[in-house]
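This week, study the protein below.
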Amino acid sequence: MKTPKLLPWQARKAGVSLERAEALWRQAVREATADTGWVGTSEFWGAAETRFRELLEAERSTLCAPQIESLVRCQSRLGLLPLIAAEQMVTAMSANWQRFCNQMSKAA
């Protein structure tokens, strides 16, 4: 049976290897087949997807990898704030200097 196209994305998001995610997907399909009794219906696919997400979340909670990605992004943005402020200051000073030079040349 084919795996969903979003499986690699979901695996990467949960921090699980692709092989493990495929194994979890096969387990979810087996359980959905046992629960619904029919294969290929919308109820079956909904049950398989729900069970897969539950299994993926359970697998994610067993991993020891810290989830610091959001903290790193925040620190990156905070680190860029002084550079952005300096760039805006230089742009404003340049615009004022250009206006001053244009007024001086018109006066002369």
Summary: The mean pLDDT is 87.
